[in-house]
Design brief:
Layout lengths: L14 E6 L5 E6 L2 E6 L4 E7 L4 E6 L5 E6 L10 E6 L4 E7 L6 E4 L3 E5 L3 E6 L5 E7 L9 E2 L3 E5 L5 E6 L5 E5 L5 E6 L5 E6 L4 E6 L5 E6 L52
Antiparallel strand pairs: 1-2, 2-3, 3-4, 5-6, 6-7, 7-8, 9-10, 10-11, 11-12, 13-14, 14-15, 15-16, 17-18, 18-19, 19-20
Amino acid sequence: MNTRPAIDESTGPVSLAVAFNQDSSCFAVGLDTGFCVFNSDPCELKVSRDFNAGIGAAEMLGRANYVALVGGGKNPKFPTNKVIIWDDAKQLAVVTLEFRSQVFQARLSRSQILVSLLNSISLYAFSSPPKKVSSFETADNPSGLCCLGSKIVAFPGRTPGQVQIVELGTGNVSIIPAHSSPLKAMTLSPNGEILATASETGTLIRLFSTTNCARISELRRGSPPIKPPSISSTSPPPPSPPPQPAHRAPTPPPPSTTPPPVSPTTEQNGAS
């Protein structure tokens, strides 16, 4: 008979999704009871919203009051085929996008909304109402992989293991043959210049330049296969200032070798 007490008897909310904002200063957590927002450093709870229903994806817009929400869990707050743009200052939904199939992920920027479905990606202008800009076919993407930068978007290609990169300004499409097995995780660097990818095998993380699609580096995690839940990148640290020369006291001048001038003297002779 097992008489050991349970390590954790908590029946608190269950996390369904976690996502950083654009500069990683905050992150949003989708719960089976609502969502909350934490500050990253220091890690502090900033916002908590109890819907008594599940949020399967929560995506912040910087540190603004807009959050993209997708229903999830056993009791979804919203239909899973809808993206809700939530204005937390007003405590209400200000934009609703409805689709014919389940939404797996949504990304926000100040000018675009990116939505990931099982076999397609849809891009909208962030306006009222939102205007559909373009749509792209993808391989099966149940993880909802997609990245939205200021100049590009990245998402799985039509062939498993490939990545499509689309330039927002020109619409040009580039294909990166990133892996031989289906993609499981991807992320853009904050400046949008580097794309990191991992496949379902999970042994390699590859870094690509988004300007010319060249592979920059390859990081090996290990040989046992594992499906990575996600990968993330941060801004590089600022460059160190150039070293300053050590402060030294001024060197005193060398002693002079010239004898000091002799003052003239007057010789007095006594009277004889």
